[in-house]
Amino acid sequence: MKRFIALTAILLSIAAPKVADAGTIMTTAGKAFAPPAFNSFCSREPRLCRTGGGRGTVILGADKASELKQVNSAVNARIKERSDRANVGKDDDWRVPTAYGDCEDFAILKKRELLKRGWPASALLLTVARYRGDGHTVLTVRTSEGDLVLDNLTNSVRDWSRTPYDYFARQSQSNGSRWERIGGAQRI
pLDDT band at 67, cuts 50/70/90? Predict the structure, then answer.
């Protein structure tokens, strides 16, 4: 009997390796205000603000996971961190960076790079949080393994609920010009 139980446990771990590691998705809890510089950014770059009106997620196989890691690391290596004040003379300015940028600029460029590779806009959501008392923006990617975060502070692609941030709002999947409050984590 012990052999049967051990064999069953091994087979289950092979057949369903993600069950023990299942990620989480962000639940939303109503409307939120967009960050102040978001609207002016969207008037200049409407394609990067759209979410496609869908509610889809990306099936995360090894190839897609690798692509996320590659885009996150490549953008983090290519762009140098610099505040909006030092970069463009404003306190808050969202843009596609060319050499320098702050957290939202990194997130925007990562979204653009993934869109170029055919990722659906509805799965690529700009997301704002608090970190050590300051605002911080990341790109949340909705996947079959949970909501993953691409962040300029690390090359790791992580489940959003396993980051040190207090999340507060993200773009709506159904309408990218609207934002929604983050309600909490739901296991998938």
Answer: very high
